[in-house]
């Protein structure tokens, strides 16, 4: 049996992407955080975009080239710091009009290097499609920022009838979550080792 100490765990940031009134995202994120904690390979943190100041108006300079001098709002400091510390991400997103929320796009666009050469997994929820259209669009955006998007993820169709008391009714959901977390842990370790060995040539 291998015991993983806290110093060896990957720093996983779970992002609640929806800021809509009455959103279901925090419920999903709480369950995902529970699964990630039980997995044992991650030091888990959760950031809720509804608690962050995320303006839509961006500075003229690109965050890719401005680096630490990029003029972000003071209210965004906690998000920026959490993104920088993280070794891996899980984005929890609904599907709005066949895509993902504007809050997520704004949070992504205010940053660049914080995503680079790090793996991103997705947990989506929605109607019949379970948020899959949102994930497809997010994969394109985050690939542009040199993040490594995971093929496998979790999708919860018709979440309004598929969850009860803060948990999915599908008894196999924890097994599916473990598969995603196992793959995410593998990619996180590989990419962290690579970043430690040499700077990523972005």
UniProtKB/TrEMBL annotation:
This is NAD(P)H-dependent oxidoreductase. Coiled coil: none annotated. Pfam families: FMN_red (PF03358). InterPro entries: Flavoprotein-like_sf (IPR029039), FMN_Rdtase-like_dom (IPR005025), NAD(P)H-dep_reductase (IPR050712). SUPFAM superfamilies: Flavoproteins. It comes from the Bacteria. Gene3D superfamilies: 3.40.50.360. PANTHER family: CHROMATE REDUCTASE (PTHR30543), NAD(P)H-DEPENDENT FMN REDUCTASE LOT6 (PTHR30543:SF21).
